[in-house]
Amino acid sequence: MFIVVDSNDNKFLMGDALRPAVYAGSPDGGGTGKTAASRAGISAEFTYKTANIYLYEGNIPLTEATV
């Protein structure tokens, strides 16, 4: 289970105890662009088979990672 945030800052729960979210692949591979227009990064798709959409309205406490 994990939470995803959409472009409107809504948080959605992906997966539950009966139906986990499953990695479905990377639709466009990775990029190593050097300019802002070419954006370095990857994308990943997950599937979560459910009849309901679960909006998470709580806070997500974040802690700074230590190196």
Give a concise summary.
By secondary structure, the chain is mainly β. It is built from no helices and 7 strands. The protein has one domain (2-56).
Structural commentary:
With 67 residues, the chain is an all-beta fold. The chain has one domain (2-56). The chain has strands at 2-5, 11-14, 22-25, 30-31, 41-42, 45-47, 55-56. The strands form three sheets. Strands 1-2-7 form a three-stranded antiparallel beta sheet, with no helix packed on it. A two-stranded antiparallel ribbon has the order 3-6. It is extended and about 40 Å long.
Unreliable runs: none
Order of helices and strands: EEEEEEE
Count of all domains = 1
**Strand order across the largest sheet:** 1-2-7
Oligomer: single chain
Q: Which structural class should the secondary elements be placed in?
A: mainly beta
- What is the arithmetic mean of pLDDT? 81
Number of extended strands: 7
Largest sheet data: 3 strands, antiparallel
Rg to the nearest angstrom? 15 Å
- Work out the strand percent: 25-35%
The number of helical runs is 0
Share of helix among residues? under 10%
Shape summary? extended
Distance between the termini: 26 Å
